[in-house]
Design goal:
0% helix; 14-stranded parallel beta sheet
């Protein structure tokens, strides 16, 4: 589809699906809009049963095949008020990939987001989510989520941007209840900003999972994490935690911000910080690797730090720790 602008509102949708017992490959959805693409809002099919505006590719339960890809090339992409882009599989077959190329990308509102999902009963690989943009903004509960609840690894999330802002519960996350969680890679030229409890970058596993947690890699010139925001590779299942790698100029953690690699019963992931200028910890902020919080025997991960200056303000209870409850801690 080629157009000047596209609006999908009030529960409207574009979809490409493989249904029921069908076999094959779902078609791709490709949108080229010179000015903008807007996804916004919902409609009520019946009382208490909303249908959200969106773009969908899927493989339904009982089908066999490969999910279609979603490709969007535009100047401004906005996803608001519960609207979604989603590539999923509930059957035998991989979910499709999502590729966004836009000067500006904004996601706003609870339930809004870009999703790649292997649902229960699916067998295959989760789709990757890739964004190329100058400015990225994620706010008020919106998220980008690559997950698996089936027999297959979750997809990865790759964002290339000049600036990245996530606030008030905006999240990037890869999760698994079964196999391995995907990785999160942010290639940010200038500034990464995370603010607010529930906000952050998360590559995690749930309590019943056996797969490993995903890795998180970021490399901006400046990083600010504040007001309870987090970067975390926590594994609540039996698999090992993923690693966090941060490279850049300066990083400030303020007001109970955290970078953590935590596992319930297995070996904790490593945290590597390579900063040419300043690392500043303020007001209860933490950098930690912890293994065996459920009394497991896993070893704590390493914290590897290289920085021009490291500053923690006295009497503000900021910490850098590497612990293990029954195994061996490291630093």
């Amino acid at each position: 589809m080629s157009t000047r602008s596209l609006k999908i509102i009030n529960g409207g949708d574009i979809s490409a699906d493989i249904l029921f017992s069908a076999r094959g490959r779902a078609g791709d959805i490709t949108i080229r809009a010179l000015e903008s693409v807007l996804l916004d809002g919902k409609t009520l099919i019946s009382a208490g049963n909303p249908f959200f505006s969106g773009i969908y590719t899927s493989i339904s339960a009982g089908a066999t095949g490969t999910g279609g890809n979603i490709n969007i090339d535009t100047d401004v992409l906005s996803i608001n008020n519960g609207a979604v882009l989603k590539a999923s599989s509930s059957a035998i077959g991989a979910a499709g990939n999502t590729m966004i190329d836009a000067r500006s990308v904004s996601l706003n509102g609870t339930g809004s987001g870009i999703f790649s999902a292997l649902d229960p009963g699916a067998i295959g690989q989760g789709g990757n989510i890739t964004l190329l943009t100058n400015s990225f903004w994620l706010a008020n509960g919106a998220q980008i989520n690559a997950s698996t609840n089936g027999k297959g690894d979750a997809g990865s999330i790759i964002v290339t941007a000049n600036t990245f802002d996530a606030i008030n519960g905006g999240r990037l996350l890869t999760t698994t209840a079964t196999n391995n969680a995907g990785d999160i890679t942010l290639k940010i030229r200038d500034r990464l900003f995370l603010s607010g409890f529930g906000t952050g970058l998360f590559a995690s596993t749930t309590a019943a999972s056996t797969g490993r947690g995903g890795n998180i890699r970021v490399d901006p010139r400046a990083i600010a994490i504040q007001s309870g925001a987090r970067i975390a590779v926590d594994s609540q299942g039996s698999g090992e935690g993923g690693n966090i790698e941060i490279a850049g100029g300066s990083m400030i953690l303020d007001q109970r911000a955290a970078i953590s690699a935590e596992t319930a019963s297995s070996t904790g992931g490593n945290i590597s910080l390579n900063l040419s200028d300043l690392l500043l910890l303020r007001r209860g902020s933490t950098i930690s690797t912890t293994a065996g919080i459920a009394q497991g025997d896993g070893k704590g991960g390493n914290i590897n730090l290289s920085a021009g200056f490291v500053v923690a303000v006295p009497n503000e209870n900021s910490d850098m720790t590497a612990n293990a409850f029954r195994g061996r801690g490291k630093r």
